Amino acid sequence: MNQTENPLCITFITGNQHKVKEAQGIFHQFNIQVEHIDLGYPEIQGELEDVARFGAEYAARRLGRPVIVEDAGLFIKALNWFPGTYSSYVQDTLGNEGILKLMKNVNDRYAEFRSVIGFATPKTEPKTFLGVVGGHIAHQEKGKYGFAYDPIFIPEKYDLTFGELTREKKNEFSHRRRSLERFAPWYKDFLVSEE
Ligand code: ITT
Question: Does residue 134 surpass a pLDDT of 50?
Fold first, then answer.
């Protein structure tokens, strides 16, 4: 697709290919094309919003163009919302098996995935867009789709984990879908206001 057919494009800074594929599927519905750059940016310790704001501002200034970044995490109520902002580290260390051990004999299995999109340009203040999906933690890992925590997360109104849902299905109502569908119309208005 060339620029004349689709003038809307956004640069997504992430090191996670799964996020890119999901974002491409979601943005497609808004007629926005995704350019992926794995730039790497300093992840400060803080709330998802702080990380997304800082990362977007950093990347926009380094690349000299508008960008989005995303900071996401799994928040489990019975664990006082752990792993939350430590989701990356916990996925790499404890992994899903470790989370299931912590949840052994725990009745309240409520959890939510949260996604915060950070948008910035080299000249403007960063903005953030939150998306949340509630659900609960499964008793065992299930499914071959998705990535990271997907096989242990059962979204609300479903009996299947995200790992058992195709990317298209997950994209219909995931945390990422919800943050990006807030961002996309706002971004279109932003581009018009910039003209
Ligand atoms: P970035 O380069 O975009 O930061 P990342 O994989 O480090 O990629 P995050 O810090 O946003 O992404 O995510 C924290 C952890 O949560 C990390 O282990 C992710 O793989 C995991 N995660 C994020 N979104 C997820 C999703 O939709 N399903 C399952 N796990 C997810």
Answer: yes
